[in-house]
Amino acid sequence: MSPADLVLTRSGLRFMGRRFPCSIGKGGVTRVKREGDGATPSGVLRITGMLFRPDRLCRPTSWATPIGPHDLWSDDAGDPRYNQLVRAPYTGSHERLRRADPLYDLVLLTDWNWPNARAGDGSAIFLHQWRRPGYPTEGCIAFSRQDLHWIAARIEPGTRIIVPGRQES
What we know:
By secondary structure, the chain is mainly beta. About 5% of the residues lie in helices and about 30% in strands. Strands 1, 2, 3, 6, 7, 11, 12, 13 and 14 form a nine-stranded mixed β-sheet that branches. Strands 9-8-10 form a three-stranded antiparallel β-sheet, with no helix packed on it. Strands 4-5 form a two-stranded parallel ribbon. A hairpin with a 2-residue loop joins β1 and β2.
């Protein structure tokens, strides 16, 4: 492991010599991820992109992409665009990226089940802002706004996220 890796532990996420409190999926960590199970997948994921709300934030990095009003993320396992950014109008099951709350003001995308998604193996495993400390996600890893922004300013595409099958201390 490198200090530039994000490593999930029982006491938070380690990165660059710091430990950040975070929330994970309400289903805990799993080795066998399925769509809708609410679990965070174990393994080594990589950062593939960054999205941000340009009406709420300045561009956090040169490689961040603005979230538009019609941007969605497909969680429709029966659609060829499953686990991809899609645009409205879109009739398949999806998650709206431009939310009323601040959870997706800044989103770090991962390569979980991407780019060649296997139907039903889970979608939209992001790093994003939490609702509040300790409140679980649907499988993502979530942080305070301040910590998420600190991390986002220091990562690059390809940064590894290590999620042990059993969380370390």
